[in-house]
Every structure is written in C-alpha cells, then in structure tokens.
Design brief:
globular, alpha/beta, seven-stranded mixed sheet, about 25% strand, Dihydrodipicolinate Reductase, domain 2, about 350 residues
Length: about 350
Amino acid sequence: MKKVTIGIIGAGRIGRLHAENLVQVSGVRIKTISDIFVDNIRIWAREIGIENVATDYEEILSDPEIDAVFVCSPTATHVPIIKKAATVGKHIFCEKPVSFSVEETEAALQAVKKAGVKLQVGFNRRFDRNFVKVHETVKNGVIGKPHIVKITSRDPEPPPVDYIKSSGGLFFDMAIHDFDMARYVTGSEVIEVYARGANLIDPAIGEVGDIDTAVTTLTFSNGAIGIVDNSRKAVYGYDQRVEVFGAKGNITVENDRPTSVEISTEAGVFKDKLKHFFLERYKDAYMVETRAFIDSILYDKPPVCIGNDGLQAELIAKAAQQSFESGCPIKISHMLTHEV
C-alpha cells in the first residue's frame, strides 16, 4: 500500500493531537515535526515514533520525501506556509482560520489552485457523527426546506488573555466553527450577518478589545434564518447543540455526556455532566477528519472541507465583527476581492 509521508508544522496542543492521531492511521508516515520550542517536544516525538524534529519548518517544505503538511502553527503564519507548500507541490491540511485577512486567504487559495494540490481546512465538527447526520437529513429533504437554524456553542471557561490578544477575537477563534457549521447543515450560503456582543465574564477580556458573549443572526440565500449564541464560560461544561427546523419537521443534536445513564431518586433526577471541552467532545471527529484528508491523497478524492469553506467562514466572522462594531447588519456580497 502506498504511504503518505507527512510533515507537521507546529507542535502545540493541536499539532500534538494531529500527530497522535496520524500515527494510528494506516498508510501514514510522519517524518518530521517542527516547532520553535523544539527541546520541549523531542522526548514526546520519539515516544510516538516521529523520526525527526526541527526548529525551522523550511526543513519540512524542502524535503522531497514529504507529500503533505499539517499546518498547526499560529494563524499569522498560515498563509506564507500554504503558499510555499503549494509551490513545492505538497498537499496541505491547515487549521482554522486560514488567516485573519480575506485578501490573504484568497491569495493562499489562488496559490493552491495554481499548484493543483489539495487543501483541507480544519473544521473538525463536520466530521462529528451527530452533525454529519444533521447534514445528511437536511440534504435528503427529510425535514423539508430549512426555516430556522439554532446553534449554541459555549466553552466551559475562557482562554488565557494572552491567547485572546492574538486569536483574532471571539468571532474568529470560537464562533467561526459555528459559522461553518451553519453553512454545512443548511447547505446554503450566508448573505447577511448581524451580531451583538458583550463583555460579561472577565473584564480583562474587554480590556484587550474582545468580547466573551455574543449572539449572531445569519440570513441564508435559501431564505432560512440562523441564530448562533456563544459564551466563553458555561459553568456546567462544554455546551454544543444544534437544531434545524424545516417545513416538514425538525432535527436536533443534544450535548454528548460520558454516559447516557439517568438516575432518578427522591432527591431528584441526575445525569452525567457534559464533556468538559473540545478535545474530549470531538475526539472521534478529529480522527475521522485526519483519515479523510489522508484518503483524499491516497485515492485522489476532493477534501471534505475545502479552502472555500475556510474562506466563507472567515467572511462571516469578519462580517460579524464589523456588525458588532457598527451596530448594523453587514452583507457578505461585497467582501470578496477575487474569484477563487
């Protein structure tokens, strides 16, 4: 069986997750992983069977044996890495968002298109079995034309303020997953965005110019209306729910729990708390996502989540930020600068 040789750029939390998943996928060899803090990863890399570690990702891009790269470095580095990887003919998996700039993302997608390589964007929730079921149910017309989409996404605790300073803010580092999910489950493009936000949890978040609570209303090209609510802190756990209401019915996804056991006593009715955070909630989805990218290379299939999906989610996030700042609805139609 042909093997895909991988290089991983960035060995933070998400880079390590992808590496530990990739070593379980048949047909994969991880040759090199790079990180500026290389001394922190040498023992771990050796333990999971990665052959080489490097401080400079150029070592990965210049290696003719490496077929594809996983871009897990900070967002600001994504576009230059994508462009260079495409130029040297390597397939690319890139964590979201591709960038904070629509123009830069468009340029990266143009480079990928010109080179003829594959690009998959890391919207892992598309690979969750529950959301796949929603997507397929809506696509097959079971609930008729979608009328209302509701997405709840609330983290158990806010990230460190130092992270927020460079994350792009709530709409780009958090809600962008939900904007992609809205497109995925409806099969329709967003044409207008209206967002309201507030700083209700941690004053330090507001001091660095971000919000921790938001509600975004989406208008779709098929006439449906979407509501996304986000919070940086839900004291009861990682709250991930989706509902699509249509002309013929309704489909909902409730939260995952460690077990489905329900205990009823005189004192009350009790269930397990929600799974704590995304690494636990979407553990299986990350693995499916990884396998899908490798299969797209091995069997020459289109990736499930392509570059345009990353671009469209960024457009919605940018519109949400502009709407929050201006207090006005923002149309998507005039935000693209090039055809991609």
